[in-house]
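Purpose: get a first structural picture of the assembly so the mutagenesis plan has something to point at.
Setup: two entries, given in the order below. No constraints added.
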Amino acid sequence: MFPTSVPITYTSGEQIEVYRFSIPVTVGVPLAALFLQAFLPRRIFSIFDLPLLVTIFFAMARRNPISGLLTGAAIGLAQDMLGPYPIGIYGIAKTVVGYFASSLGAKLDVENVGARLLVTLAFYLVHAAVYFTVARGMVSMTLNWSWSRGVLAGLANAVLGVGLYFFLDKFKQRT
Amino acid sequence: MESVLGRYRNLTILVGVLFLQVLGLAVQVKRTGEAENTRLIRIWAVDTITPFERVLVWAQNGSSNIWHNYIFLRGVRAENRQLKQQIEQMRLEQVRLSEDAEQAHRLQQLVGFKEQVIAKTVPAQVIGSSGSDLSRSIYIDKGSNDGVATDQAVITAHGIVGKVLRVYPSTSLVLMINDQTSGVGAMLEKSRLQGVLKGTADGAVTLERVMSDEQVAPGDTVLSSGGDQIFPKGLPVGTVSKVSPGREMFLKIDVKPAADLSRLEEVLVVTEKQEQNAVVDNATRVKAADILAQRLPSVPDKPPADAKVATSGNGGSPAAGTGTGVSTQLVSAPKPEATQHPGATILPTAAKVSSGTSATGAATNSARAAGGRSISNGGQQATSDTTSKKTTPAAASSAANKTPADNNGSGAKNNSAASGTGSNVAKAPTQPAAARPKPVPAPSNPQPQPPASEDVPH
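Result (structure tokens, whole complex):
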């Protein structure tokens, strides 16, 4: 069984806690996020990016850049497959996010609410920046960035992320 | 070298993974330019996700149907009654519009106009979205097995939705009009100004490429222009919600889509369009008076003897005499062939309705209203006047008498009010009553002026 709570009391580089997840959680949570993202009503939930939140969570919990970037790449590519644009745009963006989130997780304490809020907001913007760069620079798509909507969506995702991370913390397993 | 790779192992792997994805992206972009081939990996992903979505939608609809069809039925009868009334009004309105349309078709036929019509549609249910805030697309539960193909228009009863972007055997991906990469040829209904409809980053829709010196006002209706070869011309797109100066010399016109793109449940995929010459279909015409006749109590067929007696009563009792006489006469009279003037064709049938029953007055009024509507497109005010005259009892016999003369004696006396062509009937009131020639017996009947009804063939 999974532990119901995980005490995190140390955050130094040498003693930082690294978690792992069972295979059902590793596969099921990203799939559930993708499925919910596709099925939930667009009017309310289109602003949220559940696959991104899941990517950030797994990357920060595992604290392993390779694991983080591979998780991001897998989730991003799966999200690309459901979308109308060429496969790889989300893949690249989430690969970058996964890499940096896990690198950040290995150096900082990202377990408290404030840090999670800021990290999620920052990574949402990084994700959007990479996405737009690739979409406009490589695929020549005519996408426009809206700062107001971007920041609003980032904040909304950050708030949702804090709640989601709290829920997903229950599935963590100590190595 | 190995030490460098080992030292920057994570970064190296990151670069490697990114490079692979970029490579894959490049391959796709190149292939997309040559021919639209759906990649197998996409098919797998869609086939994995959509069955779950189908089941959920099915369950959701099932529970919703149980509630709406069996439990929530309060007020249905009253609503049904109201809807029936509304349908009757709309049918009358439809007649007027169909007359207008036929006139337009005739004119189009004259100039050899080719029109594009929706020949076949496939209803589909929305089962999911692309799962991304940065793209606006939906999945529908119809695919190539149902005749759906790429670049087909997707619409609702309210307006256009988007186009089919990708097709799978049993599902399709629809790119909506508010996606940033979509483009729809659109025009303003009133001014006929054409532009390109594009999506914005926040999911709104704008009409671009309209010059800033043009007059566009909020509330203007936007229609599809047909220029994109996907959406047939004239489909509702939305209404202008805001107009502001845009980049360069163009206006920035915000459009509120006619279809609620965030709450789509069922859509229609236009699977077949036809280009055809304008056709005037006279065989299926529905007349306003026919609809009125359906609404009135039916009049039983009278035996010939009764009819003879009744029709001989020129100027007699309005209800039983002349009214019925006119009715019998008009029913038996040949139907006018010349239907070039919509108002004129309504006249005989309208008079037919006004038989000698208690409903005569109502029918007359209704027929007058219908006649007045019908003539509005042809500008033949005369028809309305004629209708009102012929349906009044006093005027009935005189109308029957004078009609042969108005018809220039081209027919027998049965060329009465009913048999007169539309143009002839329409001409009648243009002459003042005093200036009209006296009734002249038809050449085929040398007897001195019998009652009009006697010559009516039964």
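Confidence is low (pLDDT under 50) at residues 1-13 of chain A.
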